[in-house]
């Protein structure tokens, strides 16, 4: 039964094929003989092509111009916002630039001051800016202060203390007096100089010092840093990482030993795991600092 049905279906298809071909030929012949069609073809052939005479649309150049415009607007907006939040720290006849941040919780748990060199090291500046914003979100006021270090570095730690005493003392005096605790965060040779100034009593010591990659680029002075740590009255959090300078790595174990024999026992050395001390680690570093502050019973 299925075979007979299929045979009938094929027979019908064979009968319809000639009719379908005839209809197609008639349709094409009609379109060729229509005057309107002929006029349209003639007109279109005589009309110059817009695509051939005009320049092609360059989508890549267009996107670049849009991105350039957006980048310019973004840059101007960032500069404007930074200018609105930069406050001067007066040092004698000149002022240091300080980016201030307020607590976003309506309470002030403390003041965190980040001290960075004004020359170079944009990664450090970016790290401090991100850390400052995170501390603001957790109820701290902050300031990121840029210190001009001069064209040449001092050859000795005592020379650095004399040369940088005035701006560093001004930064400490400008700290928010209403804050219940005052923290200083610094790195490298500035941190080493602060240890010297605190020991000598030339700069008022904060409630706590947070430092990373601390060193001084002179062998004998660099070897004195562990002893400076031992003589400090305030708690110290000492961050280390695999990207620390050779100078800092030379005293890492000695610093840790000096911290252990301190009478108050408030020195802690913490290694940054994974990446180095970079802006990507801001949340991790903030967590370490807050955990340490909490262990001191301050928050």
Automatic annotation (TrEMBL):
* Annotated signal peptide: 1-23
Q: Which InterPro entries match?
A: DUF3530
- Tell me yes or no: is Hydrolase among this UniProt entry's keywords: yes
Region of interest: Disordered = 28-56
Q: Where is the composition biased (Low complexity)?
A: 37-56
Q: Name one GO molecular function term.
A: hydrolase activity
Q: Name one Pfam family in it.
A: DUF3530
Q: Which UniProt keywords apply?
A: Hydrolase, Signal
What is the protein name given in its UniProt record? Alpha/beta hydrolase family protein
